[in-house]
Amino acid sequence: MSFTQTTMAPFKGDHVGSFLRPERIKKARISRDYGEISDYELKKIEDEEIIKLVEKQKQAGLQSITDGDLRRAWWHFDFLEGLIGVEGYETDSGIQFEGVETKAHSVRVVGKIDFSDHPMIDHYKFLHSVVGENHTPKFTIPSPNMLLARGDINQTVYNTEEELLEDLTSAYQKAIQTFYEAGCRYLQLDDTSWAGFFSEEGLQKMRNKGQDPDKLRELFVQAVNDSISERPDDMVITMHICRGNFRSTYLASGDYEAVSDAIFGKLNVDGLFLEFDDERSGSFDPLRKVNRSDLHIVLGLITSKTGKLEDKEAIKKRIAEAADYVPYKQLCLSPQCGFASTEEGNLLSEEDQWAKIRHVVELSNEVWTS
């Protein structure tokens, strides 16, 4: 297995990672659930569709190539359930978005957390094997904060969040090293937990769970930094900070100001994928807190929620506005989120999806190579 792909990530024209699930995969998954096909037959179909997706990404001009989350039902639960000490379970209701609700499912801590024999290592190995030499395979997993934020720690296993944090970050260190050994040089942590700090409503939800927002903010920073503290020098780790993305709706609103000191000044990631696609995201002013010349800011100015293409000149103007705070050389462009954070996907067509990706690539070429 070759490990020679470029690691100049994040790229000027990049993407968050997930793509709309092909109908063939959706039908195959239902057939598997009804016992009409085996797990092996489902995997074969997934493999074939991922190979097609890899080629489509290359044709669209992307340098970073993902498997589109095509094997996953959820962007976060599928990975977390693969950790030792975590199990998925059916809940009474789903997560409430803007007028829609997800399937009723969640995860909980049932034992000491650890990492071993995770199925997504093989998922990455397959992606790596089909990407080729001239592109960079990128893999995405949920941030460790996604388990910390749930606030349902099993008191018979962990008495405090700090105890949970120690085992959780140790598990993530093992995961990151295992991905690295499999050839991964570009890993992304996806995280919706920061959005809870963006509004008073979100802060109140934390307090209602018995959580202290100030303490939780520091724990989130520690969780990320401890998890990535032993990553090899030639491994790029970025973070996508999201306000929720389900069926083209959202979960949270508010700007980055409340956590700007933490995410721009304390996180040791190599890049931040940030949502800036509509008025819910606020201004670029929080970017004034960026205090590192090696931190890349990926501006999510292209929405993945609708198929309408943004005006190119308007996007270039917004990039120029962001450059008042962060130099052009540290800026990149992407959609604000993936196209299918869950298997249901956003409300746009595959044709719309690829037009959006080409839009990102074209804009990035015009802004940074013109």
Task: Give a written overview of the molecule.
This protein is of the alpha/beta class. The protein has a single domain (23-89, 106-242, 252-368), classed as TIM Barrel, CATH 3.20.20. 36% of the residues lie in helices and 14% in strands. It contains 11 helices and 10 strands. It has helices spanning 23-33, 39-59, 77-80, 119-131, 145-148, 161-181, 200-208, 213-228, 260-265, 312-322, 350-368; strands at residues 64-65, 84-89, 106-114, 136-137, 139-142, 186-191, 236-241, 271-275, 296-302, 331-335. The strands form 3 sheets. A 6-stranded parallel beta sheet has the order 5-6-7-8-9-10. β9, α10 (312-322) and β10 (331-335) form a beta-alpha-beta unit. α1 (23-33) packs antiparallel against α2 and α6 runs parallel beside α8 (213-228). Residues 1-6 have low confidence and may be disordered.
Q: In terms of quaternary structure, what is this?
A: single chain
Q: Say what the CATH topology is.
A: TIM Barrel
The count of strands amounts to: 10
Rg value:
19 Å
Query: In terms of per-residue confidence, which ranges show pLDDT below 50 for 5 or more consecutive residues?
Result: 1-6
CATH architect. name: Alpha-Beta Barrel
Strand order of the largest sheet: 5-6-7-8-9-10
Q: Write down the secondary-structure element order.
A: HHEHEEHEEHHEHHEHEEHEH
How does the overall form come out from the CA principal axes? globular
Overall tally of domains = 1
Q: Report the mean per-residue pLDDT as an integer.
A: 92
Q: Profile the largest sheet.
A: 6 strands, parallel
How far apart are the first and last residues' alpha carbons, in Å? 36 Å
Class from secondary-structure proportions? alpha/beta
Counted by DSSP, the helix tally is 11
Name of the CATH class: Alpha Beta
Classify the beta-strand content into a percent band. 5-15%
Helix content: 25-40%
